[in-house]
Amino acid sequence: MSDLSVMVVGCGDVGGRLAKQMLAKGWQVSGLRRSVGQLPAGVQPVAADLAEPSIPQAWPQGPLDYLVYCVAASQHDEAGYQAAYVDGLRHVLAWLAERGQRPRRLLFVSSSSVYAQKGGEWIEEGAATEPEGYSGRVMLEAERLALASGIPASVVRLTGIYGPGREWLLSQVRQGYRVAEEPPLYGNRIHAEDAASLLAFLLQADADGKALDDCYIGVDDDPAPLADVVAWLRAYMGVTEWSDEQRVRRTGSKRCSNARARALGWAPEYPSYKEGYAAILAGKA
């Protein structure tokens, strides 16, 4: 049994999976979200709206060893992203200061949208971050806020998260989704359980005294061309019809590397889309 504690701010899909993984390790886990009735069993509920600057009534009084900021924007525009990732984080940092809490480390869950490369090149953590869209720009602003917080911090840039309840691609393939083969549109993905396991691994590594970098990319081992993924899913699901209506609109293409996380000792349970989607379709993930 561990006496370590972690607060998961944004305890939804990935955050909830993380909470369950840390509970299994014997950690004390607090989970902050608006609707605390959906928190996993065993998680100390902290009901809060990150848009409100006043400290939540249920915010823990005692020491807080770790904090994971793992929110999802409820409003998908620049104002919504600013509120969720920058303003919300600023409020949480203020609440920590108000309680006199200084976690050993802050993990800020970011996105690979900070990378704008689109020529199919391999991307590692130190690659240029010159995002063209508001989502990447706001994420970079929030990352800088976390790294300048005075708390030891690491940002984790997750790629396309998929899993139960995140099955847009499966529905598109069933409808005859069509995607260009040339030039290849490389996509990057990580199963929701592996996204959580990477965060859990980093928390435990830090607790065990391992030195962490300030940035990690969360991605599986196989950033494959989208056409290959669609072809495999069509064969696996037995889809034979094509639709003239469903066509991909994506333009980005890059291959993100998980070499840094793997060098620390992490490995995904679902190393490629094949294992991940097969588990989802079998109802096992």
From TrEMBL:
Return the Gene3D superfamilies for the record.
NAD(P)-binding Rossmann-like Domain (3.40.50.720)
Q: Give the matching PANTHER family.
A: NAD(P)-BINDING DOMAIN-CONTAINING PROTEIN-RELATED (PTHR48079:SF6), PROTEIN YEEZ (PTHR48079)
State the organism named in the record: Pseudomonas putida (strain DOT-T1E)
Q: Which segments constitute the NAD-dependent epimerase/dehydratase domain?
A: 7-211
Molecular-function annotations in GO = aldehyde dehydrogenase (NAD+) activity
Show the GO cellular component annotation of the record: cytoplasm
What protein does this entry describe?
NAD-dependent epimerase/dehydratase
